[in-house]
Amino acid sequence: MNLKLRVWRQRSAAEKGKMVTYQVTDVSPDMSFLEMLDVLNEQLILDGEDPVSFDHDCREGICGSCGVMINGRAHGNGLFDDHPQTTTCQLHMRSFKDGDTIDIEPWRATAFPVIKDLAVDRSALDRIIQSGGYISAPTGTAPEAHSILVAKKDSDAAFDAATCIGCGACVAACPNASSMLFTASKVTHLGLMPQGQPERNDRVVNMIHQQDLEGFGGCTNIGECSASCPKGISMENISRLNHDLLGALRAGARPKS
Amino acid sequence: MALDLFTVGDPIADTKAPMDVPIGERWSERRFRAKLVNRANRRKLTVIVVGTGLAGGSAAATLGEAGYKVKSFWYQDSPRRAHSVAAQGGINAAKNYRNDGDSVHRLFYDTVKGGDFRSRENNVHRLAEVSVNIIDQCVAQGVPFAREYGGLLDNRSFGGTQVSRTFYARGQTGQQLLYGAYQALERQMAAGTVEQFARTEMLDLIVVDGRARGIVARDLVTGEISTHFADAVVLATGGYSNVFYLSTNAKGSNATAIWRAHKRGALFANPCYTQIHPTCIPVHGEYQSKLTLMSESLRNDGRVWVPKERGDDRDPRQIPEDERDYYLERLYPSFGNLVPRDIASRQAKNVCDEGRGVGPNGLGVYLDFAEAMQRLGRPAIEAKYGNLFDMYAQITGEDPYEVPMRIYPAVHYTMGGLWVDYDLQSTIPGLFVIGEANFSDHGANRLGASALMQGLADGYFVLPNTINDYLASGPFEKVDAGHPAAVQALEEVRAQTDRLLSINGNRTTASFHRELGRLMFDLCGMERSEESLRKALDRIPEIRQEFWTNVRVPGEAGRFNQSLEHAGRVADFIELAELMCVDALHRNESCGGHFRAESQTPDGEALRDDENYAYVAAWEWTPEGVPPVLHKEALEFEYVHLAQRSYK
């Protein structure tokens, strides 16, 4: 099939960007979305033009590197009724039809400055983890694994939250560019485990504080995040975060200065 | 044989394992004999760690906790992206929680045997010993392993072992273990013990007075090339499956760090040992960029077959039973569809070579669940394999509940890597290599659920206990950017970058990478012969020549330039491919993932030659035009006796 792409081109964070139109021909329905962009890039290189930059790595939906807005939707999630929520690399061209026009833009959020074209800087998410998204267990200090029992339902729920791949689709989809679903998934994962209890109050207040410092917006429970999440992380995690946050504040926990 | 292609140098040996005590005491004895570094002195010592996968992430976090000054480098935007994240199955540990006869000795035995007697007993034994500590460590960090209703950890049997020693977190074990290490690493970054270099790629090793003292790296965002110094350098940069272009590795996975270290003097061991995984989704077109693996647990219920007749392109459901060849069940009546990875892969290749392959390009075999669906019912199949079936449907657009899956083998893991001693130190003092990047534990074939175990063993427990012995003689004389060795390394990297950008030829980097990959898969893949390898060795220098005169790399050096990154990696893959073929050609025996057509039993099975090849082949780099030098490390088997594998 033949497609018209309108792609956001921006040489660097300091320069202005714009949408540029390209035609791609002979796109096979079996190609992944990123393979379609590979084809465009090879054509651009041979034509002496600058290929489109985009982050990607595992191309099997687990590393969280890839992610673009496709026709205004993060990873294209929500565009196709019959397609499960997934990452950009797992979207295949059979979801499109001959003659389609596809708009491709980077994640848009103050906290995610554009590096080039479709690649953005998501290091703010790592700094949220640094502020408290861990259990302090230096190597060698661990007790025998079976000395810690975890109820299966808690372990399963913690796992569901822990499947977040940190792609940033939740931020890109949110009208407030809030990272609440990302933060909540880590607060929930660690807060459900017995090992996570000692740091539970400090964790949630510090992570929320860091999230504010990074320039992410506030959460107004709209739900676009969960609807765009390739791992289907549920809004329940946000409720849990709010519950933990209130409890922590009442218990006197305050962010590290 | 093949003496025109290499020369034989002095033998090499590990001198660090204390051989005067029994194998079960060697690791504890080594830790006792190793020199220690006083905690107050550790902050005066700097360690560079390249890579943040299971090995690099856990090592950097642990060294930071210990009080060393750590500099951590990775090419992706976040340490959480490292390709360990994609491992599905699980992690082995000799906990014997199932009371089914498992022990450290059994895990050791299975791993040596599974590696087809081409690994070093001491390293494997230590791996089995520390496996139990890994599980404790990960649980303490909050890794959400699968659990039983009573709250205890669940286990399963994996990869044909007879005990249940595999711990798992649904089909995302690698992801969960990596996030544990990543969180520990981020904690150390916040604590200020680990300095971070995101989106920064190592492009050379700086060696001063024979010691590894730093790296040259390129900031992938600004394009700035700079030097970084330390008292020791740790490479945790993964494997080199992407030599084959199509593999299950991430697109960015590359051999540049280990290859540049090799060119600075680190020996490269067993480069020809590659693992080809039988249950991957087949290639569907020229533009294909990567292959996706599906857990081999599918072979527990799926039956592998091809049509008996060549070119039978009927809908598989229309092909009657008596016109199907369930070739694994026919050839291996006792193991059937559950034969080890290397055998399942090679037989798939054989039937496709006979023209009986299925799918658009004839490179595929059926994995059929029709019988299992009848026996167990669809809900049972959904519960067991639902996520894999969904993944298959998403990628191929076919419904595997209705039509048999098509599968084909894909390159998945490389057992070879930089040579290291028992301390995981390479032949360059101060250069340590951990995880898949080294060669040490899997011999000629890696068992399922053992890669995660090795990565974390090296990073959490082995390296942090052995690197002290080296660092105790530091801090070493200060080296800065003005040192002639640093200036020279930096200039060489700059020159290569400029050269790549200036060729401005007519072919893209990807076209060279695809050509190299296809050549390697066909001629140095599941089956190798003197003829195929000689053909590859004739062709690779031509590809290299054409690459350096006709590649087109767009853009500038001083900007974010993904084309330039890829071109540098492919330049190194081309050189490494040549060494892989030389190694494969010199090893005129079949062992593990290395099958030589000339070395097989009358019924077509792999035939090892212990008399002539029970050694590690450690290769020394030589400049172009001079054949590489082979150093042999003899392998001795004190505890596991040499035996031929049989799955008939």
UniProtKB/TrEMBL annotation, chain A:
It holds the Pfam family Fer4_8. Residues 155-185 form the 4Fe-4S ferredoxin-type domain. Keywords: Iron, Iron-sulfur, Metal-binding. SUPFAM superfamilies: 2Fe-2S ferredoxin-like, alpha-helical ferredoxin. Its cofactor is [2Fe-2S] cluster; [3Fe-4S] cluster. The keyword Iron applies. Residues 18-108 form the 2Fe-2S ferredoxin-type domain. Gene3D superfamilies: 3.10.20.30, Alpha-helical ferredoxin. NCBIfam families: PRK07570.1. GO terms for biological process: aerobic respiration; respiratory electron transport chain. One of its GO terms (molecular function) is metal ion binding. Belongs to the succinate dehydrogenase/fumarate reductase iron-sulfur protein family. It comes from Geodermatophilus telluris. This is Succinate dehydrogenase subunit B. It comes from the Bacteria.
TrEMBL record, chain B:
Residues 47-452 form the FAD-dependent oxidoreductase 2 FAD-binding domain. Its main location: membrane. It is a peripheral membrane protein. The active site is at residue 341. GO terms for biological process: anaerobic respiration. It is found in: Cell membrane. Keywords: Cell membrane, Electron transport, FAD, Flavoprotein, Membrane, Oxidoreductase, Transport. Residues 513-647 form the Fumarate reductase/succinate dehydrogenase flavoprotein-like C-terminal domain. Its cofactor is FAD. The keyword Transmembrane does not apply. It catalyses: a quinone + succinate = fumarate + a quinol. Belongs to the FAD-dependent oxidoreductase 2 family. FRD/SDH subfamily. This is succinate dehydrogenase. It comes from Geodermatophilus telluris. The lineage of its organism: Bacteria, Bacillati, Actinomycetota, Actinomycetes, Geodermatophilales.
